[in-house]
Amino acid sequence: xxxxxxxxxxxxxxxxxxxxxxxxxxxxxxxxxxxxxxxxxxxxxxxxxxxxxxxxxxxxxxxxxxxxxxxxxxxxxxxxxxxxxxxxxxxxxxxxxxxxxxxxxxxxxxxxxxxxxxxxxxxxxxxxxxxxxxxxxxxxxxxxxxxxxxxxxxxxxxxxxxxxxxxxxxxxxxxxxxxxxxxxxxxxxxxxxxxxxxxxxxxxxxxxxxxxxxxxxxxxxxxxxxxxxxxxxxxxxxxxxxxxxxxxxxxxxxxxxxxxxxxxxxxxxxxxxxxxxxxxxxxxxxxxxxxxxxxxxxxxxxxxxxxxxxxxxxxxxxxxxxxxxxxxxxxxxxxxxxxxxxxxxxxxxxxxxxxxxxxxxxxxxxxxxxxxxxxxxxxxxxxxxxxxxxxxxxxxxxxxxxxxxxxxxxxxxxxxxxxxxxxxxxxxxxxxxxxxxxxxxxxxxxxxxxxxxxxxxxxxxxxxxxxxxxxxxxxxxxxxxxxxxxxxxxxxxxxxxxxxxxxxxxxxxxxxxxxxxxxxxxxxxxxxxxxxxxxxxxxxxxxxxxxxxxxxxxxxxxxxxxxxxxxxxxxxxxxxxxxxxxxxxxxxxxxxxxxxxxxxxxxxxxxxxxxxxxxxxxxxxxxxxxxxxxxxxxxxxxxxxxxxxxxxxxxxxxxxxxxxxxxxxxxxxxxxxxxxxxxxxxxxxxxxxxxxxxxxxxxxxxxxxxxxxxxxxxxxxxxxxxxxxxxxx
Length: 729
Hints:
With 729 residues, the protein is α/β, with parallel strands linked by helices. The chain is built from 25 helices and 25 strands.
C-alpha cells in the first residue's frame, strides 16, 4: 500500500456500498480476494480505500463513490488524524472562497510543489484574516500577555499527505460552496465522535442569540469564552466583532475557520474576528475587552477550574465561587467582560440555581440587579440530554441605575398540552421530539415584554402590566427570593394551574371523560366463544414479501428538503397511538447527488416497532398518511387484492407470534418481521377477522384515552382543592 494512503473501516465500507456491517463481514468470509487489512486492530481492522473501491467495482457493488463520501473517507482515514485534516481542509476552503485565482494556480502543479505553494498562500491568507501568528495584548486599553492565533499555518510537510483530500474538498465546494462543504465535514466528524465534543444545538444557539438582541441597543461586539465548535457565534446575525476562546486548541482552530467561512453571508460579516486557545478562567486572552453581549455554554461541574490560584481575582465581584461552583465563576467572568447595560446569556445546569454553596453569590446577583431571568428548558435541549437545563440572562449593572425589583422566571420544561386536542402520551423529553419554535416563542414572549417594561417603566409591577402567565412565566419580586436558600429554580415558583385552566377546564375534561366512558362501554367486545385451537396452514411475512403480496420498508432514512416540513411517525407515536410528532433531520449541507427520500406511510400500511419485544401493530389511516417512517419501525405494505391490513395487523400482535419472531440475544429484544406468521385464508375470511381486529383497536384507543382523561381530571382536582380554585362542594 502506498505510504499515507487513506484507510477505511468496515463501517466506512458499509456506508460506501449502502449495506449493513453484517454484509461487509460476509464479504470478508466468502471472498478470498477481499482486500486484506492494512491497519487498525484485530477486532476493528482498517483497509486501503483505493483497494476497497476497486474490489467493490469489480464485484458490481459500486458504480461510483459519491464525492462527499470520498472526501469524508479521505478525511476520516487521514494518517495525521481527522481533526488536523479538517483544519487543513478548512484553511484550504477559505483560500478557495477568498482567493480562487490563487487556488487555481496552485493546483496546476505536482502534489509536492503544490504543498509548498499552498503553505505560502495559506500563511498570507491566515495572516490577513486572523492577524500575525503571535501578537501583543488583546482588548481595549492594552496590558495582558501576548497571544497566539488559533489557526496555525500548516507546513509543506504537514500539507503533503493532505493534498488529495484538499483537491477533492475543493471539487466538493465548487458544487455547493466552501461553507457548506466545511459544515458537512465538521458535522460528520462531530457525529462520528459524540463523546468527545459538547455540542450546542442550532435551535438553542439561535434562542440564546435572540435573547441578547432584544431592546433597541445594537449588538456590535460579542464574546464567547467557551466557544467549542463556534455554534453560538455562528447564530449571531448582522455585522459584529466576534471574540472567542476555548481551552482545546483543536476546537479553537475549527471554530475560527467555521466563523470565517460563515462571514460574508446573510449579513454575517464580522467587523473583527479573534479566536484564541487557552484556559479562559486561568489565562484570559482578552483581559481588557468589554463587549455588548456574551454568549456562553460553559463546561459543567468542573472541580479543577482554578479555585485556589484565582482566589483574589478581581472578576469575583459578587463573591469567590466555591470549588464546586465553577458555573458561577463563568457567570462572573461574563459580567466582567460586559459594558454597562450589556447582556450575557449562559447555559447552566439546574443545580446552579439551588445549590446551597452558591446562595451568597446568587443573592448578590439579585440584589444588584445583575441576574435578570432564569429559563428552564425542556430535557433534550443540550447535552446532557436527560436533564432540563437552564438559561441565565444577566445584565451588567450601570452606575446610578437602580436595580430592577423583579426576576423573570420562565418554565418551558413541561410544555402544556391543549386539552381541546386529543390527549397524547407523556412526552419522552428526547431531543428528537423537541419543538424549538414553541420553546423560542414561550421564552421570547415572556422576555421581550419584561425587558421592555423594566427598561422604560421599572416601577410598574408585572401583575399590573398583565405579563405573568400561570405555570409558564412570572416576574417574581426579588425580596421573595432572598430567603435562606435563594432557590431560583423556576419550577419552585411557577406552580402549574389546576388542570391547565381552572374549574371551567375541569368541567370540560369531566364531560369528555364521561363521553369516552360511554363509548368504551359500546365498544366492549362481546363474550368470547369457546373453541379449540385452529389448525390453519401458515405462512410468514418473508414468504409473502417474496411472493409480492406485501412490501417491507425500514424507517429512519431520509432528510428534509427545505420545503414544507414533513412530520415523522416515531416509535413513541406507534406505541402510544398518537399523531406523528417527529421532524425530519436537516438535509446535508452539501447536496451531492439526489437527496435521501424518506419512506412515507400510506393508508392501509401496517407499522410495527422492531425493538422492545411488545406486540404492537398500527394500521395507517388517512389522518396519518404522508408522514415519514421513523427509526426502529418497519412498514408492511400489503397488496389489497391479497391481504386485508387489519387481518395482517391483528395476527402480527399475537403474543406467541411475537415471541417466536423475536431475538433475545442482546439486552434489547429485537423483532424480525419476516419471521412473523399468519394463516393462509381467503380474502373474505381475512376481512371478517379484520373487522373484529379493527373493533378491538378502537376499544383499546378508547381505554387509553379514558386513562389519560381520568388521570388529568384526578390531578386537576387535587391541584384545584389544594390551591383553593376548587371547593369541596
